Request: fold
Amino acid sequence: MANVGKKSTEWILFVILLIAAAAVIAPILIVLMNSFKGNIFITGGGTFKLPDSTSFVGFANYTTGIQRIHFFSAFGYSLWITIASVFAILLLTSMLAWYITRVKGRITSAIYYLLVFSMIVPFQMVMFPMSKIANMLHLDNLLGIVILYVGFGCGMSTFMFSGFIKSIPIALEEAAMIDGATPVVTFFRIVMPMLKSTAITIAILETMWVWNDYLMPYLVIGTEYRTIPVAIQYLRGGYGSVDMGAMMAMLVFAMIPVIAFYLACQKHIIRGVLAGAVKG
Reply:
């Protein structure tokens, strides 16, 4: 009876996970499917139908979207902002997490709890003051927005890095220092290699956030440096008209880099999340 009950539970869990997977994958497949159909067939009630000989337009939506939103320019801006922001977040927050974990004091504790508190503050609460201050400090450019992303992304990253660093035996660092290693050498030669799984996990999460973010680039750098999410909105025409075919095609292009990056690194996610969350 116990085995029967266990198998029933496993089947129920399998069905639930299958439904959840379908709910996640279905929108992606719908976007991909509609990217090959004419605009009238998407908006005319054929959204969920497969392309046929009448609705199929080949790669016309892709070429139209690339031309209308200057896709390669937007792709370059998005790529620069994402790579620079994620690299800066990983480097700075890993060093900060190591410092506040190893150096116990009121100041480091206050910094840690302030960063944890920042994780629960919705971006919508601070977006207008942030955009005003960014303008006053001349951060409304490609370098300034990287600084802003570091500020908003350091809370979760520091929290995850700190959790894993607590599990690293301090004796390893003491042995390196006895051998003459400076704190900088100790961090990059001893600590940083151990943070690989956690760093990859954080990189995936931050990449998905920065790459797909719409509000901050729109508020801070506006239309001067259009990232892909900002550029896609310009497929909207006058009187509420939208070129849905081109928009679907550009959404497919926008998803490809993140999906590829995720698939390349996904094996590290569970390991990194557990490593950063078990120790608290």
DSSP finds 14 helices and no strands in the chain. Residues 130 and 136 are 10 Å apart (CA to CA). The radius of gyration is 23 Å. Residues 276-280 have pLDDT under 50 and may be disordered.
